[in-house]
Design goal:
With 339 residues, the protein is α/β, with parallel strands linked by helices. The chain has 13 helices and 13 strands. It has helices at residues 15-22, 49-52, 57-71, 83-89, 109-116, 127-130, 153-162, 200-203, 217-227, 234-244, 247-270, 290-299, 322-335; strands at 30-31, 78-80, 99-103, 120-124, 137-141, 167-171, 193-198, 211-214, 274-279, 282-286, 302-303, 305-306, 313-317. The protein starts with 14 loop residues before the first helix and ends with a helix.
Length: 339
């Protein structure tokens, strides 16, 4: 997990790079390299005015109140242009912190954001282990990316309440299908807790760049000040209002994701690939040499994600349909060996 603060971090979704190396066009590729739903929320036709004018504060407030209800929050969250923007602002919430404990391995942008501000990084295996550090901040992704590891909500509650002197940041980017894990309802009531929710992953709209941060008023105010006016676009707000107001469409997406998850799991099992972790939107698999297997899959125009910090793992997103499941299964049989 060690890297230079200014060095770019590899992420999933680099399809153009894969095409440059292995050829083909986008329509020929099966991109399973991200944890983004393969299904996009159906959208209505929006009035042209949302593109012409700046969003008003009343619109932001209305969507944030809908987000509070949707995610089960106890306070109205801060709308952000993707949770990545909030990650980069986290060091400003605790300007005197000289060390941060990050439950690792996990999403690398946390380490990068704090390193950029000269904050020391203490990778820990569990949230409980963070209690033994001098860190003023503890960061946990729940479910974790890329291995899907889950930390029970009661364990997080216990840590937050016992560690009042630490800011606890919980990233719930992959928790939309797991409300039983969510701490959104506690953020704002617990002054040292910040919970981040990604909009784009579950709704299949990552390109929209939208997220929500639940925090007590003082921390929320710092975020808003750092973000500045009109941080979230009018079209993003309109899409979110539509999404949060249509429970029928949300339930339909849940059903589609569940079926795609089952299809993907079946394909992996039939290919005798070892699943070592998962969330509702991806699987973490042990394949021996992850980078080699990922490259071999790419030669067949299937894009998955390998990791420097866990070289034997690859992460595989959900297939959208049965034909893709068969393609994944048969290609894995060609390139991977049981682990």
């Amino acid at each position: 997990m060690t890297h230079q603060a200014n060095a770019p971090i590899a992420h999933g979704g680099a399809l153009s790079e894969a095409i440059a190396r292995h050829g083909g066009n986008a329509s020929e590729w099966l991109d399973l390299s991200t944890g983004i739903s393969p299904f996009t929320l159906p959208l209505p036709e929006f009035p042209a005015s949302i593109w012409r004018r700046l969003p008003e504060q009343s619109e932001v407030q209305r969507v944030c109140e809908l987000a509070k209800r949707h995610y089960g929050g106890s306070v109205v969250p801060v709308a952000v242009p993707g949770t990545q923007s909030a990650i980069q602002l986290l060091p400003y919430l605790t300007p005197n912190a000289s060390e941060v404990a990050i439950v690792s391995p996990t999403y690398g942008e946390y380490q990068r954001a704090y390193q950029r501000m000269d904050v020391a990084i203490d990778p820990v295996a569990t949230l409980e282990a963070a209690a033994g550090t001098r860190a003023g901040v503890a960061v946990l992704a729940n479910p974790n990316n890329p291995d899907g590891r889950e930390t029970p909500r009661d364990d997080i509650f216990g840590f937050v309440r016992a560690q009042r002197h630490r800011l606890v940041v919980v990233d719930e980017a992959f928790a939309d299908m797991r409300q039983d894990l969510s701490m959104a309802g506690a953020a704002g009531m617990e002054p040292n807790l910040v919970v981040m929710r990604s909009f784009g992953k579950f709704f299949g709209l990552a390109g929209l760049r939208l997220g929500f941060v639940f925090a007590e008023p003082r921390l929320a105010s710092i975020l808003k000040d750092r973000l500045g006016p009109w941080a979230v676009s009018g079209p993003a707000l309109a899409v979110a209002e539509h999404a949060f107001s249509r429970r029928d469409l949300v339930n339909e997406l849940r059903n589609k994701i569940e079926k795609a998850h089952a299809m993907t799991r079946s394909a992996l099992s039939m290919a005798r690939v070892s699943i070592v972790g998962e969330s509702e939107l991806f699987f973490c698999c042990k394949v021996g040499d992850g980078a080699t297997v990922a490259d071999q899959l790419a030669s067949h125009k299937i894009l998955v994600r390998s990791f420097d910090h866990s070289p034997s793992f690859i992460r595989i997103g959900l297939v959208p349909d049965e034909l893709s499941a068969v393609r994944l299964r048969e290609t894995l049989r060609l390139v991977s060996q049981p682990s």
